[in-house]
Amino acid sequence: MESGSYVPADIERKWQRIWEEEGTFFAKEDPSKPKYYVLIEFPYPSGEGLHVGHPRSYTALDVVARKRRLEGYNVLYPIGWDAFGLPTENYAVKNKVHPAEVTKRNIARYRQQLKSLGFSFDWSREFSTTDPDYYKWTQWIFLKFFEKGLAYKAEIPINWCTSCKIGLANEEVVNGVCERCGGEVVRRVKSQWMLKITAYAERLLRDLDMVDYIEKVRVQQENWIGRSEGAEVLFPIAGSDRTITVFTTRPDTLFGATYMVLSPEHPLIDELKAQITNTDEVEAYREQTARKSDFERTELALEKTGVPLKGISAINPCTKKEIPVWISDYVLMSYGTGAIMAVPAHDSRDYEFAKKFGLPIVEVISGGDISKEAYTSVDEGTLVNSGFLNGLSVKDAVRRITEWLQEQGIGTPKVNYKLRDWVFSRQRYWGEPIPLVSCDDCGFVPVPEDELPVRLPDVQHYEPTDTGESPLANIESFVNTTCPRCGKPAKRETDTMPNWAGSSWYFLRYTDPHNDKEFASWDKVSYWLPVDWYNGGMEHTTLHLLYSRFWHKFLYDCGLVPTPEPYRKRTSHGMILGEDNEKMSKSRGNVVNPDDLVREFGADTFRVYEMFLGAFDQASPWSQQGVRGCRRFLDRVWRLQDMVVDGDEYSPELETLMHQTAKKVSDDIERMKFNTAVAALMTLVNAFYERGQALKAEFRDFLILLNPFAPHISEELWERMGFAGRISGQEWVQWDESKALEDTIDIPIQVNGKIRGTVTVARSAQKEEIRSKAEEDKAIAKFISDRQIVKEVYVPGKIYSIVVK
RNA sequence: GCGAAAGUGGCGGAAUGGCAGACGCGCUAGACUUAGGAUCUAGUGAGCUUAGCUCGUGGGGGUUCAAGUCCCCCCUUUCGCACCA
């Protein structure tokens, strides 16, 4: 039998058609099977199409999804499009094409590319966040937030991208520039819709205990939420009935507070204006600060600056001494109370400030040398110069002073978070309209549910306005409406949502994508949730992942989803770099396009290489030579069909290796060590070649193990071998732990720490047998004989170690 | 500055404290061939006085019968956070 050569193009198209026709990967609720929900971050369909980095995650979880199906799970592995957002809109504006049209084209391209790679997605559940049927429910969920008071409008300084002309969330500002376009970001006060994610800060933190996230992700979320315990303390202002409230994590150092600092934006400054004697100087400093971007203010601030509020002094409630009050931009209005008590002896920032401006430094915790630097340790050191706290440890002093503050009515324990509320407004066209109507009499009124979705008007111009308002503001037919509550003329909200909105709940919609009565039925979400395994990029750890957990918890509180957490397990993949070891980008010209690879080598080769090129969680460079090697491997697999001979059981020669391979491939997939799983499959193929044949039973199981990685070729060979049914309908290979062990083993003999040879013994051999065999071996014996044996260690099955003198 | 991860052949990378370099690429030699960017076979960490020996996982110490792996110090790279009181 001559099988002809391996032509991926023929068999890949064939099997993709068959899977589609037979609906092989369409998920149906089936209570007789355990369910398994596999999720990848759905792509943003950009104009450039896929590059080889994107499919790394899709391939890995496709391997998992296919393995789970073979293991008897009812698997949901869905796909869709996160298609609202700036790149599309910017492209549309530039090229005078409607964003909806651009989106349609981009999706078509991505769909075709993904289909060519043979992922086992359930394409029947595909949707885009830009579909009115979908964003209707995004708007609906927003209205729930609004109803519960978690969506509110605030005049706050926002990060304003001067290039995109939109407000950005803190998370979207990277190194002082816009994450998307790299444009300059300045602070600007604007009335914005906000979502109160801070109301969920504690639960977002605490419930990390309920889920299985890789360490890196968990730690980053914890740091981003940034919980810290401390106390709020009131400092009276001398000669005034006003007070300054500060937050401190070190109330134990209160006796060492020698001055105070307000943020330049602090409202108290205006209230105290009458008493301030250097108003000009103060105002000049405040203006100077306002002009600075956050980047200049934080990243570039090499040296502390500040101005004293002359005429104002506060009273340290412990020492009763009057202390000066300064303003400085090292104190942020957005954290705590926007004011601090400065303890220069025990806080390095305060220390630096005090040194520069000659402010007093009083040691209240012994143990350091405050003539050199601030002493910030909390684990050792004893309170000094602190009245009733003297002699206590830091820990005890914190407890004692907090009690005292409460007794005096001038302080309370307090928890603060770094996490800020989510700026939810965008002044752009290509996003979900915020479904509210502004009425002079009724205020903001929700659009009634039966009028959702509020559709984007189909217009020619969607350039941002110079005033920074949304392009929608210029469209009168959109803006002018009537108040749903009182019927009077009213205006629609013209801000749209950020593109994090649609991605905050898409995994719920996948469970019931065509439902026009609900965002998803209770039955469906109850069956499929939580997502069992979610893989995505580290870059989404503090944005998307936190936002979607927040939405999910909110929906849980509304009784709309069955679980407090959306994702049971979260993992993350490393980046695929260009051949030059640099990040792939158009500008570097090192982008590799999967289309070319599929054409030249086939989708299976592409998939195998994606999994083989390096450790999944680490960045690895692409190598065209490496791809060739994987193609060579599949060519060898293809030719195996001519080497298969009858045999319903494993041959004695390969039995151990078969069991070892099944075990290794299975374990490695679970541990996301896809590269070593592929290596194990290669080793097995090498063994078949060495032997010159493979028994039917061996080849059959090999194909099943290969299937998740190379689904097309394994399906095709399965059929050609005349095995029953489809390979995608088989059971995963079982292995026998005891048969995965060799019966005879080589034990290395170590003398004084050096390997001097090996002896071959039965696995069950005892120490004595190995010892005598070692002594019979001349090469080994010469290192032992005539010496005195001081120590012997035998680690069964591993090594025999002898120490001689 | 803080936190995390990493540093292993010419390259990508393997190694529950137990024979470092699996698997692949590349390279060398041979076979087959009109040809080879096909295929097959063998070899491939370095050095040496080459039946073998010595050295070898960023550098320096240490623990251990045994260290890439554990501990201490240092260097480098990448990523995240960055005046969060």
Structural class: alpha/beta
Q: Largest sheet, described in full?
A: 5 strands, parallel
Q: How many angstroms separate the termini?
A: 65 Å
Mean pLDDT score, rounded? Answer: 91
Total strands: the figure is: 32
Helical content band: 25-40%
**Runs with pLDDT <50, length 5+?**
none
Strand content: 15-25%
Radius of gyration, CA atoms, in whole angstroms: 33 Å
Assign an overall shape.
globular
Structural description of this entry:
The chain has 805 residues and is α/β, with parallel strands linked by helices. 35% of the residues lie in helices and 19% in strands. The chain contains 25 helices and 32 strands. The strands form ten sheets. A five-stranded parallel beta sheet has the order 2-1-23-24-8. Strands 4-3-7-18 form a four-stranded antiparallel beta sheet. It has a four-stranded mixed beta sheet with strand order 12-13-11-14. The relative contact order is 0.11. The protein binds one RNA strand of 85 nucleotides through helix 7, strand 10, helix 10, strand 14 and helix 11.
Chain-wise SSE layout:
Layout: H1 8-22, E1 35-40, H2 54-70, E2 74-76, H3 86-95, H4 99-116, H5 132-147, E3 151-161, E4 166-168, E5 173-174, E6 177-178, E7 185-195, H6 201-206, E8 212-213, H7 215-225, E9 227-236, E10 243-248, E11 259-262, H8 268-271, H9 279-291, H10 294-299, E12 307-315, E13 322-327, E14 339-342, H11 348-357, E15 365-366, E16 382-383, H12 394-408, E17 411-417, E18 422-423, E19 436-439, E20 443-446, H13 476-479, E21 480-482, E22 489-492, H14 506-509, H15 522-528, E23 533-536, H16 544-557, E24 569-572, E25 576-577, H17 594-601, H18 603-612, E26 620-621, H19 624-640, E27 644-645, H20 652-670, H21 674-691, E28 694-695, H22 696-706, H23 711-720, E29 744-751, E30 754-762, H24 767-776, H25 778-784, E31 789-795, E32 799-804
Parallel strand pairs: 1-2, 1-23, 8-24, 11-13, 23-24, 25-26, 27-28, 29-32
Antiparallel strand pairs: 3-4, 3-7, 5-6, 7-18, 9-10, 9-17, 11-14, 12-13, 15-16, 19-20, 19-22, 21-22, 29-30, 31-32
Helix pairs in contact: 1-23, 17-18, 18-19, 19-21, 20-21, 20-22, 22-23
The chain binds one RNA strand of 85 nucleotides through helix 7, strand 10, helix 10, strand 14 and helix 11.
